[in-house]
User: Which sequence fits this backbone?
């Protein structure tokens, strides 16, 4: 039976891109086949939705080619998770809002803990791919990360990862470092914020140890630079980084860089350096959608052994509009209050003990208020913004208003069309999609949306 599964996986691997195969089929196993019903074990709950949605036909055909007629495919999570209990039955200590998502520790993370005693890696062993939640907001970046783990210094070198704060950039790049060390403990991997790179460089100049500084970096197999947007507008430090980057790249050593924006959008970055950092492309982490946030919270609950009602999870996912860090902070706060009050999480919410500070007015906010805030932000009247004008800045403000009404109030497109004075809902759909597409690369627009949320809920 399990030889059949090997053959099925081999066939699947041939029929889809390698990155997709690595992301969705790594860690899966055949549990059983009974009466044309195939049961497949997966390492976490996040893979189930994607496997059901995208890969049923591919799996069914692969099984048929191996003489197994499939009527249904079921998925079960297989992990070493302790049984769930109600929140009131276990002690839950309040955690920092910035605490990373804690899920089952993998064998690899145990190995990473004992690494780097002779070489300081700067890595936190808590950050692994096993506890990084994959969703529609980050699946491409995770696919690239898996490729790097399989082939460091290969197709995705350098790996430039960008996105807003609290979306998991640091977690993902440190996970790459930890997974590489788990596979080969002899690798020299260094994680460092760019501010530390700069301060160490200055110290090396002051102490006349420039050669020692250069050797520290040039002997690396993997260099991970975090928060690149903080790089100083200093010629000497950028030249040094540029030279180190070129040398590592030419030796096929892996370079990984994170930032909150693209290099060419950072005023202090030299044009040549900005170009080189995106040689292999730039990959972003986006804000999680409702479904992604639910998956994150369910994973956190499941892998920490806490039972949290679906209604409580959906409440948090709906009301925390900012980022994953804030979402986890609210979740930790909810569990802490549940423990203190000896209540279930949903009872805590129902009794009003927890209100999400991120969006306290969400239920009372009206479309008119949103439109007024957006119009004022763009220095125009609501009447002007909701007119039929095709002037670029008015049209853009109107599309932003459509986007905000959709995302913040969950309004239908026909209702939005009525509020902003456009002909029909297809115009609204186009406007929303336009803003969503622009948000992927336009950091000025991201800042505008963030500022508008502050004004709406502030």
Assistant:
């Amino acid at each position: 039976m399990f030889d059949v599964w090997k053959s099925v996986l081999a066939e699947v691997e041939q029929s889809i891109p390698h990155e997709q195969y690595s992301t969705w089929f790594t860690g899966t196993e055949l549990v059983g086949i009974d009466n044309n019903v195939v049961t497949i074990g997966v390492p976490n709950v996040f893979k189930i939705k994607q496997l059901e949605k995208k890969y049923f036909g591919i799996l069914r055909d692969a099984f048929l080619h191996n003489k197994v007629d499939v009527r249904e495919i079921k998925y079960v999570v297989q992990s070493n998770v302790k049984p769930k209990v109600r929140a009131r039955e276990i002690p839950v200590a309040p955690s920092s809002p910035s605490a990373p998502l804690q899920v089952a520790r993998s064998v690899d993370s145990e190995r990473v803990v004992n690494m780097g005693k002779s070489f300081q890696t700067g890595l936190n062993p808590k950050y692994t791919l096993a506890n990084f939640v994959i969703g529609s907001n980050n699946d491409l970046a995770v696919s690239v990360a898996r490729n790097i783990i399989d082939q460091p210094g290969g197709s995705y070198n350098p790996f430039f990862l960008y996105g807003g704060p609290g979306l998991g950039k640091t977690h993902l790049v440190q996970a790459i470092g930890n997974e590489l060390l788990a596979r080969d403990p002899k690798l020299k991997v260094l994680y460092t914020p760019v501010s530390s790179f700069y301060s160490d460089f200055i110290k090396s100049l002051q102490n006349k140890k420039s050669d020692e500084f250069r050797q520290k970096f040039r002997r690396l197999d993997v260099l991970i630079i975090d928060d690149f947007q903080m790089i100083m507008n200093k010629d000497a430090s950028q030249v040094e980084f540029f030279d180190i980057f070129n040398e590592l790249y030419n030796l096929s050593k892996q370079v990984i860089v994170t930032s909150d924006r693209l290099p060419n959008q950072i005023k202090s970055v030299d044009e040549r350096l900005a170009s080189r950092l995106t040689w292999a492309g730039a990959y972003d982490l986006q804000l999680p959608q409702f479904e992604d946030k639910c998956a994150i919270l369910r994973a956190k609950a499941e892998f920490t052994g806490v039972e949290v009602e679906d209604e409580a999870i959906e409440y948090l996912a709906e009301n925390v509009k900012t980022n994953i860090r804030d979402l986890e902070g609210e979740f930790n706060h909810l569990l802490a209050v549940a423990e203190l009050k000896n209540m279930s999480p949903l009872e805590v919410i129902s009794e009003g003990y927890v209100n999400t500070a991120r969006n306290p007015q969400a239920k009372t906010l009206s479309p008119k208020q949103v439109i007024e805030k957006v119009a004022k932000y763009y220095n125009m009247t609501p009447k002007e913004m909701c007119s039929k004008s095709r002037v670029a800045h008015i049209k853009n403000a109107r599309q932003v208003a459509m986007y905000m009404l959709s995302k913040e109030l969950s309004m239908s497109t026909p209702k939005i069309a009525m509020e902003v004075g456009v002909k029909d809902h297809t115009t609204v759909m186009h406007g929303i999609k336009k803003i969503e597409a622009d948000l992927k690369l336009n950091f000025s627009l991201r800042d505008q949306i963030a500022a508008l949320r502050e004004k709406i809920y502030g």
Q: What stands out?
A: The radius of gyration is 25 Å. The longest helix spans residues 324-341. Residues 79-117, 357-361 have pLDDT under 50 and may be disordered.
